[in-house]
Write a structure and sequence with these properties.
Layout: E1 3-5, H1 7-18, H2 23-31, H3 58-64, E2 66-68, H4 73-84, E3 93-94, E4 99-102, H5 106-115, E5 120-125, E6 128-133
Parallel strand pairs: 1-2
Antiparallel strand pairs: 3-4, 4-6, 5-6
Helix pairs in contact: 1-4
Length: 136
């Protein structure tokens, strides 16, 4: 079972990964309470201090992935961009709070299944995927 984190924690982690900062460096900076060093490496306004709140689980989050506790629609689109470089109108279509015509490799599908919170469903529509709100 993967660890559940907040959307902001996910954004911070994905910003670090997008800047090609190694997991070992992330772990070291959090452990030594030096996350302020990331501000010089990553152009973002994120507060890296949020990483201290997940320090106990950070190694498994970096290795096994995470699930976002509650994922908003804008957050979903942002994570698709940050984690998979999938962009609206280029890689998928938005229809009434649904992501449609999303092409995913098996590896990408696994990544999406990991981070999606319970308020979203990933459905296979033949050769493409739909991500829609879970109405249950």
């Amino acid at each position: 079972m993967v660890t559940k984190i907040t959307l902001m924690e996910a954004y911070v982690l994905e910003a670090l990964k997008a800047a090609n900062i190694a997991d070992e460096v992330i772990l070291e900076k959090v452990e030594t309470k030096q996350v302020g060093d990331f501000k010089a490496l990553v152009e973002t306004a994120f507060d890296f201090d949020v990483l201290y709140g997940i320090e106990q689980h950070l190694a498994s989050i970096l290795q096994d992935g995470y699930e976002v506790k509650f994922l908003t629609f804008p957050g979903l689109k942002r994570l698709l961009s940050l984690k998979l470089q999938k962009e609206e109108e280029k890689d998928y279509v938005v229809q009434e709070f649904q992501i449609e015509q999303l092409h995913l490799t098996p590896e990408e599908k696994s990544i999406v299944e990991t981070f999606l919170s319970a308020n979203w469903l990933l459905e296979d529509d033949g050769q493409v995927y739909i991500i829609r709100p879970n109405q249950a």
